[in-house]
Design brief:
There is one protein chain. The protein is mainly α and 184 residues long. The protein contains eight helices and two strands, in the order E-E-H-H-H-H-H-H-H-H. It has a two-stranded antiparallel ribbon. Keywords: mRNA processing, mRNA splicing, Nucleus, Spliceosome. It comes from Cyclopterus lumpus. Belongs to the PRP38 family. Pfam families: PRP38 (PF03371).
Length: 184
C-alpha cells in the first residue's frame, strides 16, 4: 500500500494484458498473501496438509475434488483447535483473532486455489457448482479476498437469495456485509 501526504492508501490491482479481459481475472491487493490475515497465512504455509498433500495437486479439477471430499466447514480454524481462554478485551473469543490454532482444510484449499491463478471461467465454475456447498463457499471467499471491492456486489448479485444451499447463502451474506466497509 502506498501512502503519500494526505492521500488515502491505495491497493495494487493487477490488470490483465490488453485484449485478454474475457477470461483473465484482475487481482486486487497483495499478489503474494491473497490479502489473508497474516496469522492464517503463516499457518497455511506451514501446514503439513498444504506443504505435502496439496503440493501434489496441480490442476483446478484436482483441487475441486479435494474440496468436495475434505471440507466440512468454512471457518479459518479447525474446530476445537484454538485456545481462547484467558484472552480479554477485543481479542477474547473473536474468530480469526488471537492465538490461532490448526488452520482449516478450507483455508488451505482456498490458498491453493489462489496459487493456481484461477480464470473467470474456473471461478464461475466454483460459485455455480451444484455438488457441494463448500465448493461454492470457497468460490465466494476467493472472490472476497482477490477481487476489487468495487466488483464484489456484482459478483454476489443473483446469489444472495440462494435457498438451495443455506451454508452458501450464509457465507455470501457475511461476505456481502463485510464489503460495506470496503466500498468507497
Amino acid at each position: 500500500m502506498a501512502n503519500v501526504g494526505n492521500q488515502l492508501p491505495t491497493q495494487a490491482v493487477s490488470k490483465p494484458a490488453p485484449g485478454k479481459h474475457g477470461n483473465v481475472l484482475p487481482l486486487w491487493g497483495n499478489e503474494k498473501t491473497m490479502n489473508l490475515n497474516p496469522m492464517i497465512l503463516t499457518n497455511v504455509l506451514s501446514s503439513p496438509y498444504f506443504k505435502v498433500q496439496l503440493y501434489e495437486l496441480k490442476t483446478y479439477h484436482e483441487v475441486v475434488d479435494e474440496i468436495y471430499f475434505k471440507v466440512t466447514h468454512a471457518e479459518p480454524w479447525e474446530k476445537g483447535s484454538r485456545k481462547t481462554a484467558g484472552q480479554t478485551g477485543m481479542c477474547g473469543g473473536v474468530r480469526g483473532v488471537g492465538t490461532g490454532g490448526i488452520v482449516s482444510t478450507a483455508f488451505c484449499l482456498l490458498y491453493k486455489l489462489f496459487t493456481l491463478k484461477l480464470t473467470r471461467k474456473q471461478l464461475m465454475g466454483l460459485i455455480t457448482h451444484t455438488d457441494s456447498p463448500y465448493i461454492r463457499a470457497l468460490g465466494f471467499m476467493y472472490i472476497r479476498y482477490t477481487q476489487p471491492p468495487a466488483d464484489l456486489v456484482e459478483w454476489y448479485d443473483g446469489f444472495l437469495d440462494d435457498e438451495e444451499m443455506p451454508i452458501v447463502q450464509q457465507v455470501i451474506w457475511i461476505l456481502y456485509l463485510s464489503t460495506v466497509g470496503l466500498r468507497v
